[in-house]
Specification:
Helix 3 crosses helix 4 and helix 5 packs antiparallel against helix 6. By secondary structure, this protein is an alpha/beta fold. Strand 9 and strand 10 form a beta hairpin. 43% of the residues lie in helices and 24% in strands. The protein has a six-stranded mixed β-sheet with strand order 10-9-8-13-11-12, sandwiched between helices.
């Protein structure tokens, strides 16, 4: 029996990958005007993008405890081995909640074989970690082998993000009011990364897309010997700015030439805090 790979909707993987590799995805909660929606079930990314552009405010919450309990109980009753790769503990309390529910359930089902892993990632970075784990599971690797690879990828993964409008980062406390005002007036594009705790942090800024793309590619080159990218798949994420991600993808293919590129559409979890005009890249650094 193969290992089941479980994750949550913050991974932003495509429906095709989810279906092809039988990945189990639990929905986070999206909140607008005190009304709650199950991510990608009751509300779509496009609805959230449109709402954000219209001035609506969204927040997100963890996967519901009852949803976690039902899924974990299912594995306990079937005797399946599973690995849950969850949204970064630096962004959510989901990791601790999942562990608590798993540990309590073990009193009733002592043979429950469920590993819970803090991805310290979100969106395309988390998606890459889940994708690589799912491929290993399909190829018959055991839980210990998959978890070892997951932990390696978590340790080495690099996230780079930029947004079109800095007001969303200001609302989320990522930048101050002066930076937000300057960005709005001068087309300043911030560059953010995720630190080793899985928290989104301000890194640098440039003016305009051309300088942004050049800067991000230079950071990639500095993080690893270019030839290393020929053996790895990198992830990219976008919101409602398809033209920008296509331009960036073309430049990466030309200058970095990775083995493959998976393009993710930004889900509601990150969009609620960064806005829909995001460009993100994730890869394994040396």
């Amino acid at each position: 029996m193969s290992v089941k790979i479980l994750t949550d909707s913050a991974c932003d993987l495509s429906e095709k990958i989810i279906k092809d590799y039988d990945i189990q995805v639990l929905p986070l909660t999206v909140i607008n005007d005190e009304k709650e929606y199950l991510d990608q079930i009751d509300i779509s990314s496009e609805e959230v993008y449109s709402g954000l552009r219209d001035g609506k405010t969204y927040s997100t919450a963890q996967v519901g405890p009852n949803i976690l309990l039902d899924k974990f109980t299912e594995y306990a009753k079937t005797g399946e081995t599973a690995i849950y790769i969850c949204l970064s503990s630096g962004l959510s309390g989901l990791y601790q909640t999942a562990k608590l529910i798993r540990d309590n359930l073990k009193s009733e089902y002592p043979n429950l074989d469920l590993e819970i892993v803090d991805s310290k990632s979100a969106t395309c970075g988390m998606g890459l970690i889940v994708y690589e784990a799912a491929k290993m599971a399909e190829n018959g690797k055991n839980k210990e082998e998959i978890v070892e690879k997951i932990n390696y990828n978590i340790k080495h993964i690099k996230h780079l993000f930029s947004v079109e409008e800095m007001k969303y980062l200001y609302k989320g406390g990522r930048i101050n009011s002066i930076q937000a005002l300057a960005g709005g007036l001068l087309s300043i594009r911030p560059i953010l990364e995720m630190n080793d705790k899985g928290q989104l942090v301000y890194m640098d800024k440039v003016r305009g897309n051309k300088k942004l793309f050049k800067k991000m590619i230079n950071i990639m080159k500095e993080d690893g010997i270019t030839s290393d990218f020929k053996s790895q798949t990198i992830g990219m994420v976008y919101g409602d700015n398809l033209e920008s991600i296509e331009e960036m993808k073309s430049l990466i293919q030309k200058e970095i030439n990775p083995k493959g590129i998976i393009v993710h559409k930004l889900g509601t979890t990150v969009a609620a805090h960064t806005g829909p005009g995001i460009i993100g890249i994730t890869y394994l650094k040396k």
